[in-house]
Amino acid sequence: METYASILTATSPASGTTRTLLDPATGEPVGEAPVHTVEDLERAIAAAAAAQPAWAALGHEARSAALLRAADAVERSSEALAVLLSREQGKPLNGPNARFEVGACAAWLRAAAATELSTETVVDDGETHAELHYRPIGVVGAIGPWNWPMMISVWQLAPALRMGNAVVIKPSEYTPLSVLALVNVINQELPEGILSVICGGREVGARLAEHPAIGKVMFTGSTATGKAIIRSSADTVKRLTLELGGNDAGIVLPDADPAAIAEDLFWGAFINTGQTCAALKRLYVHDDIYDAVCEALTKVAAAMPMGVGLDENNVLGPLQNKAQFEIVSRLVQAAKDSGARVLLGGNPEAGQPGYFYPTTLIADIDNSNPLVAQEQFGPALPIIRYSSVDEAVAMANALDVGLGASVWSSDPARARAVAARIEAGTVWINKHGAVDPRVPFGGAKQSGYGLEFGVEGLKALGVPQVING
């Protein structure tokens, strides 16, 4: 079992240029991260390419066994990893936050190991026998975000490794220590060179996306960066899985029970203090129950404690960085300037340490307001009235993104009928953002393309090959 001190020490480079990471809740130093160069990336890719054939030759059973051992290693070091994650990212230990995220890392490693991917006989008619196989791609480049740095890294690396690939990860510059620590633990159970982390800036990310030895890039982040990766990858025709920006809509039908759904609505919107790609970011509520939903949701939100993540009482934390704090502040101010009604929050305290923005609910807001039309990625939820389901569906579908959505109703059949009309990769019923390693996940429209998780996620990390004869 790793201690916090040993976990942090393992992330500290022995030499070279470093960068100090600060706790977004307190401003205090957390640790030193390496600042890698393009030359460091080249060495990591070369090592991965050299190690990958032997890893692929082990076969699915041996690779799955290694992932299971890695999951055990993550669990043995879970508390130390959670403390580091809380300090660097800002999320509290409790609630669906740091301990939850580390637990998800172990769960997804196990799921990737356990998911069956069999050879498929597509034709066998006595004259033609055709089988569909999936071969390793080679070296996969993974570029991750700062909001769920450990968990999303595992979403990328676990299926890639299971399918016989080597992986080079570039974490966000905001949260490199968390990913370095996690990979150090996982690498206790992997051959050298198969999994590595390169902590660099934009030039490193751009080189990873264009590198001829990288056969696939997996990216989670903004749509703008995703478009840049598409352009960079074009000359080498790389395979891509892109999970890009979202501005998820939730539609509350008039037969819903406001008190019964209020807490699930809250966590759908405010998990990780709203810093989640598939969080509920705009809520459409029917006139008949609008005031009741506003009242019930405000009551739940007001009771959720926000503060420093290492305080066991807190379930909401700071925004991870100043830039995101300023985005949320700007969008909430636009809502206030428009005359929208502030139900809760909206006034961050000046002069306090950390990037804390209070839990904010905004009612009676126009659908075209920037807080609705732009992704806020923070603890501020606009609540929009509607009169007909057609109107709600039209507003939900009006944007050029479609990662997730949700429908809330006491009638599951009615909810599913509305869900089928929404343009999103996943539509949840009476919940929002609940991902499952067995269930495919991906976006529609400009929220990206490609699927993760389950059998489809494994297939996406392989090259399909048909053997015909």
TrEMBL record:
Domain of life of the organism encoding this protein: Bacteria
Coiled coil regions, renumbered to chain: none
Domain Aldehyde dehydrogenase: 17-460
Gene Ontology MF term list: oxidoreductase activity, acting on the aldehyde or oxo group of donors, NAD or NADP as acceptor
Any Pfam family the entry gives: Aldedh
Keywords: Oxidoreductase
Active-site residue list: 243
PROSITE patterns reported in the protein's UniProt record: ALDEHYDE_DEHYDR_CYS, ALDEHYDE_DEHYDR_GLU
PANTHER family associated with the record: ALDEHYDE DEHYDROGENASE-RELATED
Protein family (similarity comment): Belongs to the aldehyde dehydrogenase family.
Name of this protein: Aldehyde dehydrogenase family protein
Organism: Arthrobacter wenxiniae
